[in-house]
Amino acid sequence: xxxxxxxxxxxxxxxxxxxxxxxxxxxxxxxxxxxxxxxxxxxxxxxxxxxxxxxxxxxxxxxxxxxxxxxxxxxxxxxxxxxx
Length: 84
Hints:
- With 84 residues, the chain is mainly alpha-helical.
- The protein has one domain.
- The protein contains 3 helices and no strands.
- Helix 1 runs antiparallel to helix 2.
């Protein structure tokens, strides 16, 4: 995922005393969403922006945005403002 905006690694302990994975249970549906979207071939599915542009400000990767959208759908969050 070159030339995309990168977040912090989930195992990094910069914001909280424990890692982020310690706060999300193993049975949480967000883990299934994460694995499911990572296995998709977004280019073949017709997603735009999977291949980053060489100029301009880096975008968020389409996989990350799809994960957030599916999470919102599963939790009945219709507003993108509430997701952010």
